[in-house]
Amino acid sequence: YEWCVTPKYDHNNPTHRSIKEGIEVGNSLPVLATYDEVKDALKKAGFEVVDAIDVHDGALNENQTPWWDGLEGKFSLRNFRMTRLGRFCTHLFVSTLEFIHVAPKGSTRVSALLSATADDLVAGGRLGIFNADYFVLARKPLDARS
Q1: Please, are residues 8 and 127 in contact by the beta-carbon 8 Å criterion?
Q2: Residue 65 — pLDDT band, cuts 50, 70, 90?
Q3: Average pLDDT over residues 49-75
Q4: Whole-structure pTM value
Q5: What is the 3-state secondary structure (H, E, C) of the chain?
């Protein structure tokens, strides 16, 4: 599975670029590739692409849970930590621990980065410009096997 930008991603759209960059930075990723770039890189490395699909393309309907749902934070006891209020409480707690030198310096910045990244992942999923589930099946060419 590859993390990719989808064909809906528009490099000229500043909102799309901001979301993409937020996902890259927050997840320590190199530049997110398009589906075609992933397949081309595999072919260039000598692999044969047998199949490649966007696992979520056309798969979502009103009865299915989108992949980003867990990051979105519905207000419930189970999902409280992912709600805006839950993230605020976590950030405040981390800030306090850093202030009293229980958590290492920089923990508050990491907490803020992870919260912003969750927002970018949700936005990318909702807009359909990002997919964490691009499946590629590749193999060494059959004629190269002995």
Answers
A1: yes
A2: confident
A3: 79
A4: 0.84
A5: CEEEECCCCCCCCHHHHHHHHHHHHHCCCCCCEEHHHHHHHHHHCCCEEEEEEECCCCCCCCCCCCCCHHHHCCCCCCCHHHCHHHHHHHHHHHHHHHHCCCCCCCHHHHHHHHHHHHHHHHHHHHHCCEEEEEEEEEECCHHHCC
φ and ψ at residue 51, rounded to 5 degrees: -155, 150
Question: 58 and 128 in contact (C-beta within 8 Å)?
Answer: no
Going across the sheet that includes 33-34, the strands are 33-34, 2-5, 130-139, 48-54
Contacts 24+ apart (CB under 8 A), 58-66: 66/125, 66/126
Inter-residue contact 5 to 34 (CB < 8 Å) = yes
pLDDT, tens digit, 9 for 90 and up, residues 83-93: 888 889 999 99
- Cα–Cα distance for residue pair 108/88, rounded to 1 Å: 11
